[in-house]
Amino acid sequence: MISQEARRDWFEQLLQQGTTAAAEIDEQAWLSRRRSQARAELGQLPLPTRKSENWRYTLLDGLLGQTFQPSNEAFQALLPEDIDDWLLEDTHAYRIVFANGRFVPGLKSFAELPEGVTIASLQQVLRQQPEMLSIWFGQTANHSQDVFTALNSALMNDGLFVHLARDTILDRPLEVLHLNLSVEQTALIQPCNLLVLEQGARAEIIERYTSTGDSVYFHNGVSEILLEEDASLTHLRVQEESPQSYHLHRSFVSQAAGSHYHSTSVALGAKWARQELQVRFQAENAECQTRGLYLVGKDQFSEQHLDVQHNTPANSSQHLYKGILYGACRAVFDGRILVGQAAQKSEAHLNNHNLLLSREADVVTKPQLEIYADDVQCSHGTTVGQLETEQLYYLRSRGIKLIEAMKMLCSGFAAEIFADMKNEVLRERVQNRLDTILVRALDETSGEKHV
């Protein structure tokens, strides 16, 4: 067990080392104030421990036992052919690439954008239109919420900025590729993303997090998403990273009246991963739908946190998360929906289902509903189980080998998460990756090789 003093020293060391990289951003008065506040609060905020409710089931010693170096060099030498293996082919998407959290100008796929659309890096906007950031930055995220968010704010270096003006429609998906290329050192990578869709704007964004080999690094990211009245965002997020990496990302979503947020998140990699999503309804008739799949294998830890607050009337939220666990591993699902007293005629549904493929797998599932209104439709549920013996017997009786039968059942279990993923190229890529991992995992757990 790492002592409190050692934990505090860990954050202080990262703060000191990251000062040079953070200083590269052109300082604005408002940004300087935010950074100074984050630095001051970083030493005062409570440290995450197993006694904290939000961190009760989180395994932190592995992360805090590592020494990370804040990433402060841009990858200017990367060429398009260097990233071919990671690209989504035939999507006709706009593309922007970040390497170790830094924008790579030579790898973006667009020269012009539709009128009213801005897609850029945080550093670009701070240099050219800093007033745009000052309007929206910090509206959804409390950058002094905890030590990890404060660390991101204090050392903010770069990230994604997307802005769609009123009634603007992004005519093609935006593919955001986050490459982690830590080889010689264990890097601290801290993107800070801001997505703003003004009234009536519509977009689809595909975020992908990937890495080379067995890189060891810590991704500590923050995303703010602001959806104004009647805006609509489809947000697809796929995380398939090094089996030695650590991944923490917080997303804060603010929804105005009549807005729509549809999110599908797939977590396929990392040694230690924790994803948090906070949704706040600011006015009536907004709708939020999230789906998530996490695949957790030997020596891995994966955690999903969901916090949705209905504080205004007639909003709808539906949330479905599924986990497949194999080998000696652990997963945590912690979901909470709060329906406030003023949120009459709200609808909220939360479900979490888990499939355990080995006896060593461990899952903690905690879906929660807090309801203070009386005219609502709400439900929540959770299941933890294994593959059905009868279903396996049925498939094997028709000549299907054990591994193939097990894979078919696992794929069927996960299929509901992909059902609304309209991007066929991404859906096929994720399904193929899932099948590959499942075959390898089932080979190890069943004792019978796939042929």
Question: Structurally, how many domains make up the residues?
Answer: 2
Count of distinct strands: 21
- Characterize the overall form: globular
How many helical elements?
A: 10
End-to-end CA span: 44 Å
| Largest sheet properties | 11 strands, mixed
Structure described in brief:
With 451 residues, the protein is of the alpha/beta class. It has helices at 4-17, 19-22, 29-42, 61-64, 122-128, 130-136, 147-154, 389-396, 402-418, 424-446, and strands spanning 69-70, 94-99, 102-103, 117-121, 160-164, 174-180, 187-189, 192-197, 202-211, 217-227, 232-240, 246-255, 260-267, 272-281, 287-296, 301-310, 316-325, 330-339, 347-356, 362-371, 377-385.
Give keywords.
451 residues; ten-stranded mixed sheet; 21 strands; 10 helices; alpha/beta
In terms of topology, how is this protein built?
Elements: H1 4-17, H2 19-22, H3 29-42, H4 61-64, E1 69-70, E2 94-99, E3 102-103, E4 117-121, H5 122-128, H6 130-136, H7 147-154, E5 160-164, E6 174-180, E7 187-189, E8 192-197, E9 202-211, E10 217-227, E11 232-240, E12 246-255, E13 260-267, E14 272-281, E15 287-296, E16 301-310, E17 316-325, E18 330-339, E19 347-356, E20 362-371, E21 377-385, H8 389-396, H9 402-418, H10 424-446
Parallel strand pairs: 1-7, 2-6, 5-8, 6-9, 7-10, 8-10, 9-11, 10-12, 11-13, 12-14, 13-15, 14-16, 15-17, 16-18, 17-19, 18-20, 19-21
Antiparallel strand pairs: 2-3, 4-5
